[in-house]
Structure formats: structure tokens, C-alpha cells
From TrEMBL:
Domain Dockerin as annotated: residue spans: 156-225
Taxonomic superkingdom: Bacteria
An example Gene Ontology molecular-function term: hydrolase activity, hydrolyzing O-glycosyl compounds
Any single Pfam family the record assigns to this protein: IG_AIR9
PROSITE patterns tied to this protein: CLOS_CELLULOSOME_RPT (PS00448), DOCKERIN (PS51766)
Record GO biological process: polysaccharide catabolic process
InterPro entries (UniProt xref): AIR9-like_A9 (IPR056284), Dockerin_1_rpt (IPR002105), Dockerin_dom (IPR016134), Dockerin_dom_sf (IPR036439)
Protein name: Dockerin domain-containing protein
């Protein structure tokens, strides 16, 4: 019922001067709405509007302007200039564990939204070109296991003032701001991407000064098609976990309990769940004809007489607590030699 009442209140506001309704004292054009502007119709040179934010990226600062923004530990910084964003990847992929760090991007506009690459200092360099959404894929080689791991994040780019992300800047954006500000209880449902779009005056928070800044911007032509300022927000995409540097420990002889070790890695920072294990035996080291050993589903296995002359294999499947990508790629490790029997009696 409360939501319906709010909708009724917004309709008459849109019919008359929005600024007058807000008590800002600046008249709108006849008709009571702001002129529509194509959010991507500005000139060719984008100006990055600070702060640049990030959402749910556990290794990255939440804001380019506030190093301690929503952070309880030191994180990688977001360095934003008018034209580019630099993100240091050294903490995310330390040089003593990873090398060959690269980045690529994909967007629906065939690469016209942004360009990304990793420079010689292991910094992710992002240059935006237009409004849109870009998927950034960062890859790194895990040195010990020679495994390529992947971290996918998204970059949302929108015209400053395009609150509802409909490609236009008009009174609908002011209405979206009003809806947010009037419904205090619903604020937690807004994402960092949405909150960043609503921060019109770029002071790092959303308040009544933002609809005022939106409407005043039009009165002096600071917002709209002639303005090249764009708002950027990075967001984590869910990636599957990895089982790295898996090894078997113990002699390949009957009666010996062999164990396995493995390193869990998840680029998103998702916590590990129970690993899945399955042991096999095969006639050769290739494992082409390996067969499952029933009920051998733990990280340890005691070699039996049935394994003599066979190679042992262990499949490990990493699992995380993530709801979207809980299970990673299965890795297989093999014993260094075929199983030997006990020594012959004297």
C-alpha cells in the first residue's frame, strides 16, 4: 500500500516543475520535463567521473577516493584519472605464486565500450570509450602447478545523470532518485552500481543534494548530451574454484596409506566447501582404461593386494560455498609408479 501511495505522489510532480516540487527554485522547460539526451551521444573523449567504485571484489578497494571504503584490511587501490583507471594486480596475483598475467574484454558492441590490458608493472589498465557493460577477464599462470586461473569482473559505464540507465538523461532520472530517497527502508536493496549512478554530485553518497545537482546541471548545461563525464563501477562475476598443485604422498606398496595434498584457490574469495575425491586404478600411467575403486572417496587411500601392478589415480573436484559456481574443474593426479607387492619372504 505504501508503494502505491508513492507512485501517486510522483505523477503530479512529473507534470509540473520538478525543481519547484523539490523546493529548489529553478524552473524547468514548458511541459515540466527535462530534455531527453542520448547517454552515448557526447563527443569522442570520455571523462571519468570520480569516485570509481567496486562491488563484491574482495581484493579491491571499494572506492577510488576512499582507501578505507567498506574495507577492514588493506586492499588493492583503484587509481582513476580523467581517461584511464589503473588497478594493481600484485596483491591479487603475487609474483612469487603467479606469472604471465593478462587481461581481455568482451562487450556487446564489439570492443567499442572499453579497452583493457595489463602493463609491465602488473597493473590492469582500463580505458572507457562509451556507455555500456564490459566483461573483463584476467588470467594468470599458477607457477607451481602450471595452471591458468581466471578472474572475471564486469565494468558498468554510464553517462553521469543517467540514474535509471535507460540511455537518456531526463526527469525519469530525477523520479528514480526521489523514489530511492523517499523509501529509506529499501536502500539496502540497491547495488553499488545503482548507488554510483545516483550520486550525481559525486560526493560519495546519495542524498537530497543529488536530485538538486541533476536538475541544476541542466539549467547551466552541465549535464546531458554536451557533457562527457561518465560513471564507472566494477563488479565481481562469480568464478569456479581451482584445485592447484595436487600431489600424492607415500610409497606405492601394498599396506601403505597414501595421502593427497591440494591448494584451494578461488579468485572471488569464496570460501572452500568439502572437496570431492574419487580413487581409480589403471593398467598404465595414461589412465585411459582406469576403473573406479568403490567407496574410495576420501583424501587418503590404503593400498591393497588388488592394486599390485596397477597405477593409482585420484580425481579431486574443488567446491566453494558459492551459489552460482560452486564446483570447479576436476583435476587428476597419478602415482609415480605401479603398485608393488610386499617383499618376498627370505
Amino acid at each position: 500500500m505504501k508503494g502505491k501511495q508513492n507512485k501517486k505522489r510522483l505523477k503530479p510532480i512529473l507534470r509540473k516543475s520538478m525543481l519547484t516540487a523539490l523546493g529548489l527554485g529553478i524552473a524547468l522547460p514548458i511541459g515540466g520535463t527535462l530534455p531527453q539526451a542520448n547517454a552515448g551521444a557526447a563527443g569522442s573523449d570520455i571523462i571519468i567521473s570520480r569516485p570509481v567504485l567496486s562491488e563484491y571484489i574482495h581484493w579491491l578497494n571499494g572506492s577510488s577516493e576512499d582507501p578505507d571504503f567498506h574495507s577492514i584490511r588493506p586492499l588493492s587501490s583503484i587509481q582513476a584519472s580523467d581517461k584511464t583507471v589503473l588497478i594493481d594486480l600484485s596483491n591479487h596475483f603475487p609474483s612469487d605464486q603467479f606469472d604471465t598475467i593478462k587481461a581481455s574484454s568482451y562487450d556487446a558492441n564489439d570492443g567499442n565500450v572499453a579497452e583493457v590490458y595489463v602493463d609491465v608493472n602488473n597493473k590492469l589498465v582500463v580505458t572507457p570509450f562509451s556507455s555500456g557493460v564490459v566483461t573483463i577477464t584476467i588470467t594468470a599462470n599458477h607457477i607451481a602447478s602450471q595452471t591458468t586461473v581466471t578472474d572475471n569482473i564486469q565494468l558498468f559505464i554510464s553517462k553521469q545523470g543517467d540514474v535509471n540507465n535507460d540511455g537518456k538523461v531526463n526527469s525519469a532520472d530525477a523520479a528514480a532518485l526521489l523514489k530511492h530517497l523517499r523509501n529509506e527502508l529499501n536502500r539496502r536493496s540497491y547495488s553499488a552500481v545503482e548507488m554510483n549512478r545516483m550520486d550525481i554530485n559525486r560526493d560519495g553518497e546519495v542524498f537530497w543534494s543529488d536530485p538538486q545537482a541533476l536538475l541544476e546541471g541542466y539549467s547551466v548545461a552541465k549535464l546531458g548530451a554536451k557533457d562527457n563525464r561518465y560513471v564507472l563501477t566494477f563488479k565481481q562475476l562469480d568464478d569456479a574454484p581451482y584445485a592447484l598443485n595436487a600431489q600424492l604422498i607415500g610409497e606405492m606398496k601394498t599396506g601403505v596409506k597414501i595421502t593427497s595434498t591440494v591448494e584451494y584457490f578461488d579468485a572471488d574469495g569464496d570460501y572452500p566447501n568439502t572437496m570431492l575425491y574419487q580413487w581409480y586404478q589403471g593398467s598404465d600411467a595414461t589412465g585411459e582404461s582406469k576403473t573406479e575403486i568403490p567407496e574410495a572417496t576420501s583424501s587418503e587411500y590404503t593400498i591393497t593386494a588388488n592394486d599390485v601392478g596397477k597405477y593409482l589415480f585420484l580425481e579431486i573436484t574443488p567446491q566453494s560455498t558459492s551459489d552460482e559456481q560452486p564446483q570447479g574443474r576436476t583435476v587428476t593426479i597419478v602415482g609415480k609408479q605401479a603398485v608393488e607387492g610386499p617383499p618376498s619372504p627370505p
